[in-house]
Amino acid sequence: MSKKHGLPASFTSYRDAVRVELKKVIDSCPPALGNMLRYHMGWRDEQGHSCSKESGKFIRSTLCLLSCQAVGGDTSQAIPAAAAVELIHNFSLIHDDIEDASYERHHRSTVWILWGQSQAINAGDAMFTLAYLALLRLKEKGIADEKITNCAEMLSLACLELCEGQCLDVEYENRLDITVEDYIDMAAKKTAALFAVSTCLGAYLGSEDSKLVDFFRLFGRELGMVFQIHDDILGIWGAEDTVGKSAGDICQRKKTLPVAYGLQNSEGAARKSLGKLYSQKSIRGEAIKEVTKILDKLGARNYAESVAEQYYYRALAHLRATRLDTSSVAPLKEAASFLSKRDF
């Protein structure tokens, strides 16, 4: 997996518009906080000088706007909501890096490594707050107050799920009894909830049809599961130079889907070995290779790929259920295909 496949056209169509909105929102932040946020986004280096290290794919914001476009809405009105979900995502990344003690993200030092844990927490909190200030900018786009209130409620509930999922993810690190079902519950909250609200907000801002909006919510949720499981696979079997991170999931004893499957289905020597490895404080060096070897023998990768494929087809089924024109949903189908096959 050493060669990156470029982003599809659907992922670049709104990128500039979202970036402009994000910069407007982040520029309203006090300098001490704004510098850390701009660094995290890849717009500035640690000294505050301009740079072009932006590595985020703007997945959630893109899905928001493509969903609005698909239902026939005015995407320019939904830009603040797209920026809001992107800011929530990045708030979670800043805090996630602290919780996981991650030194790097996309080949750059993480915020907490440069400014310390306390200031990184402040930066994450600021990013979270800015998300709601971004959402309030919907009023400037002509969105009714009631709709803005409903959008804020949707985003808040998704954030609560995200935090619960992250809580479970951390808790699972110290447990060996995690099942595939436990993993699914965690991933649905940690990752899929924000995907679901992204597509839901876009459709909601572009349509008054509640059933249609719900189909988009379900589409986003299933696609979020595809994304997370595929991320799990890349975290173990992907090339570090393309994925942008090392085998941190194994090092930190994360119970990703392949690992949960391995723990649940291993027997004899393999089960004993996995149990011993995952009982250590961290897994390093040759031990990582041993874990991968056991998972390979158990067929954990093939299992994870098959589960991701199931979610992918379920996502497409929800998209078909909208009964929208093929041309309307084509960009979303393209996005879904990319997320299921990406190598970075």
Structure description:
With 344 residues, the chain is mostly helical. The protein has one domain (9-341): Farnesyl Diphosphate Synthase (Orthogonal Bundle), CATH 1.10.600. Helix content is 72%, strand content 1%. The protein is built from 16 helices and 2 strands. The protein has helices at residues 15-27, 31-41, 59-70, 75-99, 111-115, 117-136, 145-172, 180-206, 210-237, 240-243, 248-251, 257-265, 268-277, 286-298, 300-321, 326-341, and strands at 104-105, 108-109. A two-stranded antiparallel sheet has the order 1-2. A hairpin with a 2-residue loop joins β1 and β2. α3 (59-70) packs across α8 (180-206), α4 packs antiparallel against α6 and α9 (210-237) packs antiparallel against α15. It is globular. Residues 242-246 have low confidence and may be disordered.
Structure keywords:
Farnesyl Diphosphate Synthase; two-stranded antiparallel sheet; 344 residues; mainly alpha
Order of helices and strands, N to C? HHHHEEHHHHHHHHHHHH
CA(first)-CA(last) distance: 9 Å
Q: Do you know the CATH architecture?
A: Orthogonal Bundle
Q: Briefly, what CATH class? A: Mainly Alpha
Strand order of the largest sheet: 1-2
The low-confidence runs, each spanning 5 or more residues with pLDDT under 50, are: 242-246
Largest sheet: 2 strands, antiparallel
Number of helices: 16
| Shape assignment | globular
Count of discrete domains: 1
> Which structural category do the helix and sheet elements fall into?
mainly alpha
Q: How many DSSP E strands?
A: 2
Q: What value does the Rg take, in angstroms?
A: 20 Å
Summarize model confidence as the mean pLDDT: 93
CATH superfamily: Farnesyl Diphosphate Synthase
In CATH terms, what is the fold-level topology? Farnesyl Diphosphate Synthase
Portion of residues in beta strands equals under 5%
Helix content: over 70%
